[in-house]
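Q: Got a minute? One more chain.
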Amino acid sequence: MPDIMELTGASLAQVKTWLQERELIGVRRGPNKALYVPASFLTEEGPLFALRGTVTVLSDGGYRDEEIIAWLHEADDTLPGGSAIESLRAGSKTEVRRRAQEMAL
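A: Always. Here it is, folded:
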């Protein structure tokens, strides 16, 4: 979380709110079970705007956070940028969400 705070200038309370409201997701790793959020989910202003809806679609379809993170980062040459997360970053959320809906069925 300190890295998120440093990148965005957000307070710890704000970062926790983003996580609670699922604007960001992460996984716990390591011996101290630290929360890791992929840097690709962030901009200097905060969470990537298009991420929340995509996470919601996949979560509603039964995907766990680990699976969502893996799917978003999986190589896919048919998407702009080569993956779902890079397509979201490029502004192509419609196609990514369409595919997420298909995955969630």
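A: The two ends are 33 Å apart (CA to CA).
Q: Perfect, thanks.
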